[in-house]
Amino acid sequence: MSLTVGCIGCGNMGGAILAGLARNGGYALCGYNRSPERMTPLQKLNVKSMPNALAVAQASDILIIAVKPYQVESVLRDLHPVLNKEKVLVSIAAGITLQRLTSAVQNACPVVRCMPNTPALVGKGVFALCFEDSSISASQQSGVRHLFDTLGTCVELPENKFTAFSALIGAGPAYVFAMMQGLVQAGVTLGFQQREARQMVTSLFGGCSEMAQCDAKPLMQLRDDVCSPAGLTIAGVNVLDRAGLTGLLVDAVLAAEQRGREMEKS
Fold it and tell me: In the predicted model, what is the mean pLDDT of residues 116-143?
């Protein structure tokens, strides 16, 4: 008998998770969104649209909460009557701690924190999972892990690493897209059509990512392998080194992490 996965809040991220699960198969799926039109494309993928959040919680073995962070605790308090130890609650809300989540559900069910990034929208997400709620069983933990493994790459982290994960990986697409935009802009400057430059640059990043995953060489060695003596590549790399690109990326991640810490205290 397949597990039922429900999602409350089927916007961009919640909807992407349900759509990915629907494409991969293996689960009964249901969801609720305050704007009913967001459920229409999901219904075409055999996701059952439920009349309210309580109905989703009642039907689900694994319940994903994907509403805005400021809405999470009030939504969870309303679900308390139908929660029990056989259900697992997975929150993807940024900044809402396990302590706040367990308090909102009054310890009625095990709670897991999950932090995705936006490539989850195309089935290539990176998901941080925190299983520090002592009430979760080994089989429930395995079930949650398997669910997100089908949608991308999962890493298990302690909760105190979630802000660092958000600064590096959650915010990471913004850094990558900024670099991609710079190369596309350079391509247009060199005379390529914008569409051509974008296609080439996206393929460039995809290929480099595959190489980095498959080749155990240090990343700087992979970079240096492209640089011929007195060639055009080393001329470009020298400019990046003088500008301190690596240091700028480190500074960007550290600034994001610091801002995350400030937001946690507010």
Answer: 94
Cα separation values, 258 from 22, 209, 265, Å: 37, 28, 11
Contact between 77 and 103 (Cβ < 8 Å): no
Span 170-265: which CATH code?
1.10.3730.10
Strands 62-65 and 88-91: parallel
Nearest CA to 79 out of 159, 2, 9 is that of 9
CATH superfamily of the 4-163 domain: NAD(P)-binding Rossmann-like Domain (3.40.50.720)
In this predicted structure, which of 79-83, 188-192, 260-264 has the lowest mean pLDDT?
Answer: 260-264
Which residues make Cβ contacts (< 8 Å) with residue 244, sequence separation at least 6? none
Domain boundaries for CATH 3.40.50.720 within the chain: 4-163
DSSP percent split of the chain into helix, strand, coil, nearest 5: 60, 15, 30
Confidence of residue 216 (pLDDT cuts 50, 70, 90): very high
